[in-house]
Amino acid sequence: MGKLKKELIEWLCALVIGVLVVIFVRSFVATNYEVIGKSMMPTLHDQDKVVISKLATIRRMDIVIFHSDKKEDYVKRVIGLPGDTISYENDELFINNEKVEEPFLTSYPAYENLEENFTEDFELQELTGSKTVPPNKLFVLGDNRMSSLDSRYFQFIDKKDVIGEVKLIYWPISHATVNFRSE
């Protein structure tokens, strides 16, 4: 009976350690999310399953998941970092007065077949009352600009509300990818 008891204790210890490791990883390192909605098409689709890194340093053009004031989580692309000026003119993005390419938009049929601009013209100050993105804030947009609730409507997001950066799509397998960078 002593050998069985010892083996049972070893299995129980291994199980407890495994559960603690999973809790630690999900709390501080990485976790998974399901995309809800079409605001990030064509990059992310409704019901895509993604893994996010909670340790990533957020850079311009990263895709992030963040908490909103409405107690919901959103997935959007970081367009502006603290200190940036942002404007859109004739479907061209300008950050700090330099044109920035957005190749992730050109693969979207809705972007190619428009009678008007995919992203309406704006300047940061007219949307937010601020010439630049404030300290500890981010300006985010959905890739599906015609159907995205983003910083054009709710202005800046707090960096502290960012849960993490989307690193990969793992489901469905047909959409599996790990490359979201465009800079």
Radius of gyration: 20 Å
> Secondary-structure element sequence?
HEEEEEEEHHEHEHEE
- Count of spatially separate domains: 1
The tally of beta strands, per DSSP, is 11
Shape summary: elongated
**Distance between the first and last residues' Cα:** 63 Å
> What is the helix content?
10-25%
CATH class: Mainly Beta
| CATH topology title | Umud Fragment, subunit A
Strand order, main sheet: write it out: 1-2-11-3-4-9-10
Major sheet: size, sense and barrel closure?
7 strands, antiparallel
CATH architectural grouping: Ribbon
The computed structural class is alpha+beta
Strand content of the residues, in percent? 25-35%
Taking pLDDT < 50 over at least 5 consecutive residues as the criterion, the unreliable ranges are: none
Mean pLDDT: 83
CATH superfamily: Umud Fragment, subunit A
The number of helical elements comes to 5
Explain what the structure shows.
The longest helix has 27 residues, at 2-28. The radius of gyration is 20 Å and the shape is elongated. It has helices at 2-28, 103-106, 109-112, 124-128, 151-154, and strands at residues 30-34, 49-53, 63-67, 73-80, 86-89, 92-95, 98-100, 122-123, 137-141, 157-158, 162-171. The chain has five helices and eleven strands, in the order αβββββββααβαβαββ. It has a seven-stranded antiparallel β-sheet. The model has no long low-confidence stretch (mean pLDDT 83). It has a single domain, classed as Umud Fragment, subunit A (Ribbon), CATH 2.10.109. Strand 6 (92-95) and strand 7 (98-100) form a beta hairpin. With 183 residues, the chain is α+β, with helices and mostly antiparallel strands.
